[in-house]
Amino acid sequence: MNFAKEKPKVYFKTFGCRTNVFDTQVMMSNLKDFEVTQDESKADVVIINSCTVTNSADSTARGYISGLKKLPKDPRVVFTGCGVWTKGENLFKENKVDSLFGHSEKEKINELLLQEERFFHAGDLTHIDETIVEEFVGKSRAFIKIQEGCDFRCSYCIIPYVRGDARSYTEDKILEQVTTLAANGFGEFILTGTNVGSYGKKQHTSLAKLLKKMALIKGVRRIRMGSIEPIQIDDEFKELINEPFMAKHLHIALQHTSKEMLQIMNRRNKVLSDLELFEFLSSNGYALGTDFIVGHPGETDELWREAMQNLHRFPLTHVHAFTYSKRDGTPSATMKPQIKGNIAKIRYNELVSIIDEKNFNFRKNNTQKLEVLVESVKNGKYIGLDQFFNQIEIDSPVDLVGDWVFIDDYEVKADKNVARFK
User: What is the pTM of this model?
Assistant: First the structure.
């Protein structure tokens, strides 16, 4: 009688953005001689897919690495992700991690993990993956990576230097990926990448053309997008905004609403044209989110007041706000004057308070039926996101995880909507 040898267990710890979430799934898909575990304590190997967007992101990864010593199996620690290009060499030299590999090497993960010796393979910044992901572990929505890298050079951002210049996946590869996941039961797709709106720029195609073709695939019900730059929403894209497959939410990266601060940040967007775009999308029923950096060097009291006056005019409903955190190696890191942390915190709270109120009013004034994909259950309540990217908590006697439900009777609370589904 033959007993199969038990495969070593691998645990993935993913930090950072949706692109990293997809990259982790690519790595999982390429493991042949190892088994993925969701239980950190059972891991023989821990893969850390790192983020390096700020110095504090590096510190978070370091803290996590230190905590792994407490695990019962004393796992082998392998480091990957954007941090390879900033802190990877030091981590390797200091023996904080056993091995390390860069983005371009992740499809080779199985053969790399079979190596008994320590290794450091940083790879290159021009690679595009070939893997077709068939499943997303623990997810109801599917992330689709459509491009890699960024050609922008915002003064605060290290990402182009650790992800490379913008390059797109081929349309055929993306459509094959979507078709596979749709056949496996996924109905909502989130397009992700380092700079999603740059898709197709060097391939004589566009994001809008890709969306049209995705929508023709059987099983595709709703498409969301990662962060897009204002200048990337062109007339071709605007023609699609009322198509039924489009989620009624867009996340458009402003980063600031002061003209001078945008110049300091080396941004390409302009406040007045941004406002015109947001008003147009809002008039077509869209909820609108943005990124906003608070406390960037040079943000005087006067510029902050100007920014908040402008912000009140924007029909925003969501914000990914964060206080500026220095990233070594970027122009912003040496800019003066630096903003004190206590001042940045006050400004952060002011910003979030404004957007929270805007979101509450948007939900309170909404008259459309909510189309919800239920993603999880927590404390006996089902949690999902509607077409506007607002969370709803549902009380139901039946299991709703993974289901689409329509809700027209719900209570609007400060931080979410609440409903009962029979």
Answer: 0.89
DSSP calls for 314-343: S---EEEEEE----TTSGGGG-SSPPPHHH
Q: Outline where 142-270 has alpha helix (H).
A: 159-163, 171-183, 207-215, 235-238, 259-264
pLDDT surpassing 70 at residue 64: yes
Helix-helix angle 207-215:171-183, to 10 degrees: 30
CA distances to 30, 53, 131, 149, 405 from 25, rounded to whole Å, are 9, 21, 10, 18, 27
378 DSSP 8-state letter = E
Q: Nearest CA to 162 among 16, 334, 46, 336?
A: 16
Cα(152)–Cα(233) distance, rounded to whole angstroms?
16
> Among 112, 106, 111, 196, which residue's Cα sits nearest to residue 149?
196
**What's the one-letter identity of residue 156?**
Y
Whether 333 shows a pLDDT value over 50: the answer reads yes
Q: Measure Cα distances from 249 to 283, 284, 385, 388 in Å.
A: 12, 11, 11, 5
Position 249 scores a pLDDT of: 98
